[in-house]
Each structure stands twice: as C-alpha cells, then as structure tokens.
Design goal:
about 180 residues, five-stranded antiparallel β-sheet, 11 strands, globular, RmlC-like_jellyroll, Cysteine dioxygenase, oxidoreductase activity, acting on single donors with incorporation of molecular oxygen, incorporation of two atoms of oxygen, dioxygenase
C-alpha cells in the first residue's frame, strides 16, 4: 500500500525543480510506522541504505543510522532533500577547493520532522545517534558520488551501490584521487 503511494507521488516527476522535489517529499508524508518494514540494521557501516523508489528522474532512499558517522561526500550531479523521520541529525557542510582536502565551514542541526536541502556538488557529512532514520529524495538518481577520506587525504568516486563511506570492496572504487592538504 505504501509502495503504491510512493509510486503515485514520485512517478509523475520528470526533471523536477528544487521546490517541486521538496513538495513531492512532503506529499509522501511518510511516517515511522509506514517505513518500519523497510528498516534493517547496519553495525559495520554508518547506515543501512534501502532504495524505495527509482525512475530515470528521481530516487527515494531510506537510511537507518548505526551511530557511526558517514564520510564527507557529494551527490555527483544530483540535488536532493533529506527528511528526518526519527532522531536528530548534524549536517556538516564543507568547502572544497580544486584537488584539496575539504574543510568544514558550518554545522547545522535538524530534529525529527525537519527537511534540509543537499545542493548539487556540495560536500556534506551527516552524524546522528543509533536509531536516526532519514528519507532522501534525489534528482536525478545519484551517480558519480565522491567520498572523501580526510585521514588518507584522498577522494574516491564510488559505484552507485555504495554509500557515503570509503569502500572496502575494490569494485566500488571507480576512481581514487590523491588530494593536497589545504594551505593554512
């Protein structure tokens, strides 16, 4: 039933505007109880990632957080909205100069029920306690996501089935880029 509702809300979207994408996420009006059947735990990764809907124009992902921080990352050529379904989240935004390590420049906090925007090519990192549940709607579906490892001073373009962490599986590492430390 909920899957039918998702499809009815998202299937009509073709190249949605930023506001059109936000309205579609809000129209879903997803509750914890509706999403509960899709929740699985993830103890080794920052979150369990469940694809709930995908067309050639948009994708909807549910993320159940483990308490581990994700890595700084972008969303390739996609933009999106993130809705906090349960818990509280810290969203850290980074500035990135060409081929340099990202630098944290602002941190914002969002509580249950709030939504926030993830612009195309922006780099961010999310943190939350175990039990944080977030719903992500992106346009177009994420491809070419770049994940940053601040300790290795490197970035990696990851495969579409990888989340916002440095992949252990070599097949998920499409391109590794050595970065320079930002000048002080």
């Amino acid at each position: 039933m909920f899957e039918h509702h998702i499809s009815n809300c998202l299937r009509p979207l073709t190249k949605p505007s930023i506001e059109g994408l936000r309205q579609a996420l809000l129209k879903l009006n997803a509750t914890y109880d509706e999403l509960a059947p899709y929740i699985q735990s993830s103890s080794e990764k920052p979150y369990y990632r469940k694809l709930l809907f995908q067309s050639k124009h948009v994708e909807l992902l549910l993320m159940n957080w483990s308490g581990l921080d994700c890595a700084p990352h972008d969303h390739g050529n996609s933009y999106g909205w993130i809705q906090v379904i349960a818990g509280n989240v810290s969203n850290q935004l980074f500035k990135v100069q060409s081929n340099e390590l990202p630098e944290l420049f602002v941190e914002k906090y969002y509580k249950q029920g709030k939504t926030f925007f993830a612009p195309k090519k922006s780099v961010h990192r999310m943190e939350g306690n175990k039990g944080l549940l977030t719903l992500h709607l992106y346009a177009p579906p994420i491809s070419g996501m770049k994940v940053y490892d601040l300790k290795k001073c490197a970035a990696c373009v990851v495969s579409d089935d990888c989340g916002a962490w440095w992949p252990e599986d070599q097949k998920q590492r499409l391109k590794v880029i050595q970065l320079n430390e930002a000048p002080e």
